[in-house]
Task: inverse folding
């Protein structure tokens, strides 16, 4: 196989991988649960907020099938909810199991709807020096589900995200070192950008034309790598600067916006960025699009950071670390995209499949996201 064929195949594989990944993503706010654990000696006091829509998916809470889950329907299933939840989380103190006992049931609302609140207590055989948590809630029904943990022991606060790939995590309960906390939030930032398929498709839509030049009504291959790299640098820098501003404002509680509005606006940004490749309105200064819509994406980035909870003792450290993680995730994406795109820029695969067909597919997917988010519908599995 020639170098040209290898590059063409690599380009096709990269684009298809992005589309397949994005197609499996939920258009609504991801399915999250919020687990808070407070260690008091050998006892662990827990509170677990689980979305009613997720419990309905697992247990069928809507018994009369009228499309609305009432508190009466939830109250009748308290025992089932407790059994379902507590069999899907396991706490081990220094390797020894800590059995959990359900307590009271409450209700609460988050930005994306109503939640059942389960309080429970776990009793460990000794005061733990290390705690291992095995999390299995909903992964069999929704592989995109996440568990957001806040672990408290005295003044020490640790956050973690549980996903299907990271369902078991171990925590040292000694004094938290600032460097460990910084690294943990960097990982959260990287993970968030790599699983934020709408953010990825927005950035890719702006990067697709970076290795091309506008020629009348069409596109031709760029002649200088330095010019293409500078274009990419402008787009990424503008996006970074913009979302860093609103991420900080939202995470610190200075500005708050409704979740549905933010998620819908992000979908709009993806639609417009993709359509701009098909019907160029902004071809030379795409960094302006990156900055304007990056302000919106910053509120989306902030949602997971707010949900994790910023420890007050290290608020600035964790905010900076999360931002660094997001940027590292973006740079990894650019590092994978730019060399392949540059080598393939003159091929029909890149101009026809990646730019035109790819942008069309992104626009259609993002339009479906917009309809789902704006009207709270479910069009895609």
Result:
């Amino acid at each position: 196989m020639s170098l040209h064929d290898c590059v063409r195949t690599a380009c096709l594989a990269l684009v298809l991988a992005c589309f397949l990944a994005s197609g499996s993503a939920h258009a609504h706010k991801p399915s999250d649960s919020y687990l808070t654990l407070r260690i008091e000696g050998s006892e662990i006091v827990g509170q677990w907020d689980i979305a009613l829509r997720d419990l309905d998916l697992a247990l069928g809470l809507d018994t009369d099938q009228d499309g609305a889950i009432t508190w009466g329907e939830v109250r009748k299933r308290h025992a089932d909810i407790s059994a379902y939840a507590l069999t899907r989380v396991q706490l081990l103190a220094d390797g020894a199991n800590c059995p959990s006992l359900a307590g009271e049931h409450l209700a609460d609302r988050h930005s994306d709807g109503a939640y059942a609140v389960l309080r429970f207590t776990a009793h460990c055989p000794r005061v733990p020096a290390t705690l291992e948590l095995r999390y299995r809630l909903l992964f069999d029904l929704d592989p995109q589900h996440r568990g957001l943990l806040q672990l408290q022991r005295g003044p020490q606060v640790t956050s973690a995200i549980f996903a299907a790939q990271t369902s078991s995590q171990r925590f040292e309960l000694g004094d938290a070192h600032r460097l460990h906390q910084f690294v943990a939030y960097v990982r959260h930032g990287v993970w968030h950008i790599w699983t934020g398929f709408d953010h990825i498709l927005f950035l890719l839509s702006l990067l697709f034309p970076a290795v091309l030049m506008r020629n009348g009504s069409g596109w031709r291959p760029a002649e200088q790598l330095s010019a293409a790299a500078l274009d990419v640098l402008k787009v990424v820098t503008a996006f970074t600067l913009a979302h860093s501003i609103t991420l900080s404002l939202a995470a610190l509680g200075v500005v708050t916006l409704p979740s549905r509005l933010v998620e819908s606006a992000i979908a709009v940004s993806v639609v417009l960025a993709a359509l701009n490749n098909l019907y160029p309105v902004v071809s030379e200064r795409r960094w302006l699009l990156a900055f304007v819509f990056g302000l919106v994406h910053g509120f989306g980035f902030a949602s997971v950071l707010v949900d994790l909870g910023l420890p007050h003792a290290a608020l600035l450290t964790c905010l900076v670390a999360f931002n660094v993680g997001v940027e590292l995730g973006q740079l990894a994406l650019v590092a994978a995209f730019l060399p392949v795109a540059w080598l393939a820029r003159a091929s029909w695969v890149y101009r026809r499949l990646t730019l035109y067909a790819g942008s069309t597919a992104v626009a259609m997917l993002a339009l479906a996201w917009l309809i789902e988010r704006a009207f709270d519908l479910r069009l895609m599995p």
